[in-house]
Amino acid sequence: MKLSVLKQINVGLTLLLCAPSMAQKTVGDFIESRSYNEARRGAERVLRYQPDGNDFVCVNGINRYSRALYGGYTDYRIETSDRPIFAIYKKRDYRNIRFRAVYEGRELQLDSTNYCEARYSDGTRRYVLADKSWGDGRLYVEVVALTDEEGAIWKFRADNFKSPLSVKALVCNIANPKLHRNGDIGADKPGCFEPAAGDAGLTTSEWTAADGKAVSATSYFAVSGSAIKNTDSRQAAKRFDATRDYFKTLAARVVFSTPDPYINTLGGALVVAADGDWDGQTWLHGCIGWRMPLAGWRAGYLGDVLGWNDRARSHFDAYAKSQVTKVEPTIPHPSMDPKMNMARAEKKWGTQMYSNGYICRNPERDNQMHHYDMNLNYMDELMWHFCYNADTVYMRKMWPVIKSHLAWEKRNYDPDGDGLYDAYCCIWASDALYYSGGAVTHSSAYNYRSNLLAARIAEIIGEDAAPYRAEADRILKAMNARLWLNDRGHWAEFEESLGLKRKHESAALWSVYTPIDCGAGSPEQFYQATEYVDNEIPHITVATKDAEYGSTISTSNWHPYSWSINNVAAAEVMHTALAYFEAGRADAGFALMKANIMDQMYLSDSPGNFGQLSFYDAARGECYRDFGDCIGISSRTLLQGLFGIVPDALNGRCVVRPGFPSSWDSASVATPYMTYKYKRVGNKDVYDITQNFAQPLKIVVRQNLANGRYRDIEGSAEAHQVITVERPEVISGRRAVRAAVVRPSARALGLDEPTAGRYVPVKMDKAMNANVADIYKNEYLSPRSPYTTLQIPVQGIGEWCHPTLTAEINDSVFRTLVKNDMFTVAGVPFRTMKEGRNIVYTSLWDNYPDSVTVPLSGKASAACLLMAGSTNHMQSRIDNGIVVVRYKDGTSDTLRLVNPDNWCPIEQDYFEDGKAFCLASSRPYRVCLGNGKVSRDLGRELGITGVYGRPIPGGAAQMLNMPLNPEKKLESITVRTLSCDVVIGLMGVTLKK
Q1: What residues contact residue 197 under an 8 Å CB cut-off, 6+ apart?
Q2: What is the pLDDT of residues 915-960, one digit of tens each?
């Protein structure tokens, strides 16, 4: 046994004005801005681990304290290294463990031998050690974490030592006991588990490991908690063998056999990691960092996908008891929190959010608010549970939970009843996402699937299915009508509820894989949408100096960086690979999955790691191990995607749709509920299938016909069956041609270098309506959504996770450099005020007009614009505003202001690495308001480092060089804001005659 609004904000604004101001924060205050991997940025990688059967193997490796062994269902773990040096983690009770061999008068630390082979598999770390001072002697070391108590046992086998060998264990404090994220890699300072200075707290134990006479001798070392435990060798051997056998049996729960040795290690690694993510009642946020229960994200898939029906129900039952059932929603929308600068919901019982249907933070606690919508992922996982086991008794038990959840989602996130849902931090990648009440693809897709399956469950148990079927139909029609981009072949990220109600077409990964995974569209749509990822999402080559392993991907192409917005996150890559498999793109799906596996498990610091962030993540690098979200979705990608086992118990069938690469001619998989062997024989595919579902399901083999098309071959519901099918002739055919995304030229973006000529500044003093420094001193109160939502804070910068973020914009130094109301940028003189108002701001906020027009006269070949304003990641890859020059003849020219191409946030410098963060070949000239420096690369000029924030002292203006028709007479220039959230300002206009 293991241990167990538009313009109305109502009363909220009054509260805001009366509330004490919170301490304002800058980006450097946030843990997400900290990286312990800066020295490794851009470093050449090596293949650290090799597969050998089920083992991850390295020889003379260098990684320390990077592969955890989990025993019981507590936070206790043993940290292992590529060489035999270890650490014990138990909160506030940490110890370093190292061993020394004493042989023929020489003492040698075991992590310093000439040769060390290390293997990881089946929850065990094993070593083979040799050293020239030992002659032919070999020392074999194995370690397991115990399952029935917090402790561990090491087994030592000494072979061929000609003289007596003794081993000394040294157990002491660790170097840095002040751990931020439980000692996880990338999140805590490297070296934290090394021995404390002076071996503080040292205890030792020494024993004879070989007498020099026997060919082979075995001995044991044990710890209980953090203390050395003296134990009888026979008892230690018995416990060691029992623990090792337990983990072997556990790991054998899922077995992969394929032509690719890098895949064959993953079955056991997956199960052992999942077991480490279980606390005896619920799935956890992570095995190490973030080790806490969590209702949402993707760990909750594990129970069913890995065949733990009992664990699945334990998890679902525990959080069903956390659903609020006795608090009526009596407080109307909106209920925004003035203490959080109106960026997120007020935590108050009786609001639409914190009332009946809401699932609380911790299991079996229906009185504990959280700031996430964990309901949505929890419900998707519960629906998957019924796809594996359509137990009508359990359906009836959970029906009230389902009903209450769907009613809660509807009243909170689709209160206008249009069938499209807002998203309120309901996915992993949501810590800076906010949609201000908009119509969002990923949340609408989740609600589509939940309603669709709820209708089917209702039919089965005799409840009224009609409302849920109707809601699913309404959602799908609305998604197709308003979010699907016919000319682009993918879904928009969202449609605005305010302002111009535009569609944000630059979708992130979650707006592709979620509708595919939820079946919210047609097979043709799914296929096309994955091609958007191919073409528009940044790809990063996974490589060593000797080989390339395909490409991983970032989560979006948005700028500037904010945590969870543009990361290289393993779970996001795996979910996208699953979507490729679901869309019928097996080769592409496998390539993406394999690149992530190589990146995370073989080239990484931790063998067999289901981590959170990649080495290629720009902000933090490799970070967190065995993260629940990644373990959960990886289980689905491997078993539902690669091996294609997709149970549909609600309809009495199981679809088998393998996602094998076209080069494979055989493969097999074993799980608790299905085992099958696939073999290609000539032009036939043969499936030898044995099922063990709770209710026998009809087996349906689905063959991919390319471009989203497929055909089904029905088998039977027999426990064992062999299905032989003709291999189809795959014809690509013709599909609708997507409109290419046009990349504007540097000239069209106003980024051409100014040329010599006569420049005439325009006098526009009377148009000025603000000081540049006012931008984040204002309170932007309206228009805002009339519903509870996530939105930009009232100061116009930041997001719901960091609602007090601010930036100091100070142009006082810049003003001292203004001479005779003139300042020159790249040879272009601009009229700007040394004192008084020096900018005309425009915005969709009521604080400023949405546009401003300045008269012009004469003719010009270009208009040079000195501008400044705000933008953010939620307004990336879309026109934030436009500049329109009108001619006397009624025609006009337009310059579009696009983040990040030619529109920059006043407070920061864009990060660029040519990978996840790519910018136009030319950047705008920017003027540092804190010192007057002018450069197309202020980051380099000012020595700005890092990814997150990149603050510019005092802020920065920018210059754009807008080409004009020199043959036409000018009438006016208009600056117009198009994006919600932003402020766009014009400081000066200079015409080139």
Answers
A1: 175
A2: 999 998 899 999 999 999 999 999 999 999 999 999 999 999 999 9
CA 150, 154, 156 angle in degrees (round to 5)? 170
Q: Is 49 exposed, middle or buried (0-12, 13-18, 19+ CB in 10 A)?
A: buried
pLDDT, tens only, 663-685: 999 999 999 999 999 999 999 99
Alpha helices in 252-307 (DSSP H): 261-264, 266-276, 302-305
Alpha carbons 256 and 260: distance in angstroms, whole number: 10
Q: Are strands 539-543 and 840-843 parallel, antiparallel or unpaired?
A: unpaired
Pairing of strands 490-491, 484-485: antiparallel
Q: How far apart are CA 284 and CA 292, in angstroms?
A: 5
pTM summary value: 0.96
Six-digit token pair at 504? Answer: 């944000």
pLDDT band at 363 (very low <50, low <70, confident <90, very high): very high
pLDDT at 3: 43
Contacts of 325 (CB under 8 A, 6+ apart): 356, 366, 404
CA distance 845 to 770: 14
- CA of residue 252 relative to chain centroid, distance: 29
Residue 849 tokens read as 């007009």
Q: CA–CA separation, 454 vs 387, rounded Å?
A: 12
Q: How many residues does the chain have?
A: 993
Residue 25 predicted with pLDDT over 90:
no
- In terms of Cβ atoms closer than 10 Å to its own Cβ (0-12, 13-18, 19+), residue 616 is buried
pLDDT at 962 over 80: yes
Q: What pLDDT is attached to residue 739?
A: 61
> DSSP state, 648?
E
Helices (DSSP H) in 624-667: which residue ranges? 628-636
pLDDT attached to residue 959: 98
pLDDT value of position 231: 84
**Alpha carbon of 872 to those of 57, 426, 537, 875, 980: distances in Å?**
45, 20, 18, 5, 10
CB atoms under 10 Å from CB of 505, counted, come to 17
Chain centroid, CA 503 distance in Å: 23
CA-nearest of 380, 207, 397 to 300 is 380
A 10 A CB-CB count for 90 gives 14
Q: Which of 67, 291, 76 is nearest to 181 (CA)?
A: 291
Strands (DSSP E) contained in 193-302 are 203-210, 216-224, 227-229, 255-257
Average pLDDT, the chain: 95
**How far lies 471's CA from each of 209, 395, 483, in Å?**
70, 20, 17
* Amino acid letter, 899: N
Residue 529 CB-density burial (10 A; 0-12 exposed, 13-18 middle, 19+ buried):
buried
Exposure class string for 134-162: b at 16+ Cβ within 10 A, else e:
beebbbbbbbbbbbebbbbbbbbbbbebe
Which H or E run contains 375? helix 375-388
Q: Give the burial string for 290-320 (b: 16+ CB within 10 Å, else e).
A: bbebbbbbbbbbbbbbbbbbebbbbbbbbbb
Give the DSSP H/E element, type plus range, for residue 394.
helix 392-413
Q: What is the mean pLDDT of residues 79-95?
A: 97
**What are the distances in angstroms from CA 936 to CA 229, 813, 893, 958?**
65, 20, 24, 9
Please, what is the end-to-end C-alpha distance for the chain in angstroms?
A: 85
How far apart, in whole angstroms, are the C-alpha atoms of residue 398 and residue 537?
39
How far is CA 571 from its chain centroid? 6
**Statement: residue 101 has pLDDT above 50:** yes
Nearest of 113, 218, 125, 204 to residue 165 by alpha carbon: 218
Percent of the chain with pLDDT over 90: 92
Q: What pLDDT shows up at residue 16?
A: 31
Please tell me whether residue 233 adopts helix, strand or coil conformation: helix
Rounded to 5°, the CA angle 635-636-641 comes to 120
Q: How far is CA 797 from the centre of its chain?
A: 22
Closest CA to 278 of 72, 583, 444: 72
